[in-house]
Design goal:
The protein is of the alpha/beta class. It is built from 13 helices and 13 strands. Helices cover 38% and strands 15% of the residues. Helix 5 runs antiparallel to helix 6 and helix 6 packs parallel to helix 13.
């Protein structure tokens, strides 16, 4: 079911990814830089903050892929990460200059000019191999399987990384990528920085009693896709870290996503709604969201209490998750909150 959730979001997100990339580039031009490893994070989640004094890869390095294969990496001059979350980790480790391609979910500014090696959400083996990669990084749901098989058959090391389901996955994913790149100590530094920043945000979360109920909605208005997240949507960990309750889970939704109906909304009774920013745009903003049957009758709809986060980073659970959490907390708990 979790794999279904990842494939679903990846497939639908592809429709808007090119637009998101352009938006990210514009945002990066208009915002400032990093506050350093010990300081505050950058002012926008559309940029990645590399570690200071990044380590050079010590290779060869052998590690175990999440699919059980032993992977030996002898060179890491040309790296192809096949998801936005994996690209984010490589750039955050300070090795972004070694990345030679991106997939369609990689929307942060530093990667905007890299060539695409996916068609919609499907990997093109020919495009990947034409770039002569030393290492390919993939998610368990990266596909199609035939394309991944072609890449392996060509002799390219492929590291498959376990998927991200929540805050507890930030460190393991960083360490897995860092081990394959021959920079395990940098992986520990980045993990420590990421977890420290997440903890700092959590310590500032205002206490509301009762805790607000938040429904995670996946919206794609142009495709008439309206879904509410349940147990395996991937948003529960973020919602709980922000001092709230996942309304979909609490209302008994056991699947990753369920078709959004008035009945489901009444049962969930959310005090606030969490959405991806492009999804909110696709339905015409908050005014358009309120026109979806059932929304206006919820406490969230009546109070117009909506939080939106950029699509390419919301559920990646990586080095920028502290910024995602901080933005969500600020929107959720703001007086008269809303996007």
């Amino acid at each position: 079911m979790r794999g279904t959730r990842t494939r679903l979001i990846g497939a639908l997100l592809a429709v808007f990814a090119l637009t998101a990339t352009a938006a990210c580039t514009t945002a990066a031009t208009d915002t400032g830089g990093s506050g350093g490893e010990g300081g505050p994070p950058p002012s926008t989640v559309n940029r990645v903050e590399p570690l200071e004094n990044p380590a050079a890869p010590a290779l060869p390095a052998t590690t175990t892929s999440s699919d059980g294969r032993k992977v030996t990496v002898r060179r890491a001059d040309r790296v192809v990460p096949l998801s936005g979350g994996l690209s984010e980790i490589v750039f955050s480790l300070g090795l972004g200059d070694r990345v030679v391609a991106r997939d369609i979910s990689t929307t942060f500014a530093q990667a905007a000019d890299l060539p695409l090696v996916t068609r919609a959400h499907d990997v093109s083996a020919e495009s990947v191999l034409s770039l002569r990669p030393d290492l390919v990084l993939a998610e368990e749901t990266t596909g199609p399987a035939e394309a991944m098989r072609q890449i392996r058959d060509a002799g390219v090391p492929v590291l498959v990384v376990a998927p991200a389901h929540g805050l507890d996955d930030v460190g393991p994913r960083i360490r897995s990528v860092a081990a394959a790149l021959g920079v395990p100590s940098a992986g520990e530094r980045l993990t420590e920085r990421s977890e420290r920043r997440i903890t700092a945000v959590r310590e500032r979360v205002p206490a509301e009693d009762p805790k607000p109920r938040v429904a995670f909605l996946y919206l794609r208005g142009s495709a008439s896709v309206y879904l509410i997240g349940g147990r395996d949507s991937g948003a529960t960990s973020l919602i709980e870290a922000a001092g709230a309750v996942d309304a979909g889970v609490e209302s008994g939704l056991t699947k990753d996503f369920t078709a959004l109906t008035s009945e489901a909304l009444v049962k969930a009774a959310p005090d606030a709604i969490l959405v991806m920013s492009k999804g909110l745009e696709s339905v015409g903003g908050i005014d358009g969201l309120a026109e979806i049957p059932g929304i206006a009758q919820t406490p969230a709809g009546m109070d117009r209490r909506v939080a939106s986060i950029e699509d390419g980073v919301l559920l990646t659970y990586g080095p920028r998750t502290d910024q995602v959490l901080e933005s969500f907390v600020d929107q959720l708990h703001a007086p008269g909150g809303g996007a």
